[in-house]
Amino acid sequence: MIIRRTPFRVSLFGGGYDYPKWYHQHGGAVFGFTINKYCYISIRQLPPFFEYRQRIVYSKVENVSEFDEIQHPAVRAVLKDRGVEVGLEIHHDGDLPARAGLGSSSSFTVGMLNSLSAMDAQMIDKKHLASEAIRIEQDVIGEHVGSQDQIWAAYGGINRIEFHKDGRVRCRACGPFSCPQGHPVRPFDALFQRVFPPCARNRQEANRQPGSTPKAHPNHGRVR
Fold first, then answer.
1. Where are the domains of the chain?
2. Which of helix, strand or coil describes residue 63?
3. Pairing of strands 61-64, 54-57
4. Least C-beta-crowded within 10 Å: which of 105, 107, 128, 224?
5. DSSP characters for 70-108?
6. What confidence category does residue 218 fall into, taking pLDDT thresholds of 50, 70 and 90?
7. Contacts of 190 (CB under 8 A, 6+ apart)
8. Would you call 20 helix, strand, or coil by DSSP?
9. Using one digit for the tens of pLDDT, what is the confidence trace for 158-196?
10. Which overall architecture, per CATH, does domain 2-175 show?
């Protein structure tokens, strides 16, 4: 059995500048960090004694024989794209519920890709893992999403992510941070308070709302 743990993220600055339609014209940058809350994916090869070929367990339980019968879009897309030929049992567990606005969908996709690579005895590097997750979500599934969540899920840590017009992406780790002389040094996470609201957020629906696409500005994408 393969178990992979993938972090959720908090995006602080630059939201909207990570959309290909924007940064291919203007470039862009975002700043944020991952947190100590995670998505867990466990995968094992399913013994050939069951009536179904694939078993997927998340908020629902799916027992299917064909990929096209799978309801979970990321699972269906990843398995079909990789041409998986064996039966699998896939379990998802999360420290936080879905639609919390913390990039959980991309954490799931990154965890799926990482787990399947481990099953094939392959170690996939962070850059390629993020790139594959972006391709799966934007091109294979066809979701209207940006490119930052997948990168944070793959890299972890506190990062400035730069998006260039030619499609290149640079993830720069930030820190450690220092305080002015005479001021006590506090852990970075001690400066923030997380509050869980009683509402869910669908990133695709939110991104389709009027005003969700940034407008050009003289300092667009400049995160310092």
1. 2-175
2. strand
3. antiparallel
4. 224
5. ---HHHHHHHHHHT--S-EEEEEEESS-SSSSS-HHHHH
6. very low
7. none
8. helix
9. 999 999 999 999 999 886 655 566 565 556 666 666 666
10. 2-Layer Sandwich (3.30)
The CA-CA-CA angle for residues 131, 209, 30, to 5°, reads: 40
Q: Which residue is it, tokens 């398995």?
A: 79
**Of 110, 154, 146, 148, nearest in space to 30 by CA:** 148
58 contacts 197 by C-beta, under 8 angstroms: no
**Residue 211 is encoded by which pair of tokens?**
């005003």
Cα(214)–Cα(224) distance, integer angstroms: 18
Q: Are 28 and 39 in contact (CB under 8 A)?
A: no
- Among all chains, which residue has been given the structure tokens 């290909």? 20
> How far apart are the C-alpha atoms of 14 and 169, rounded to whole Å?
14
Element (H, E) at 21: helix 20-26
Residues 6+ apart with CB under 8 A from 208: 144
Measured between alpha carbons, how far is 168 from 110 in angstroms, rounded to an integer?
Answer: 19
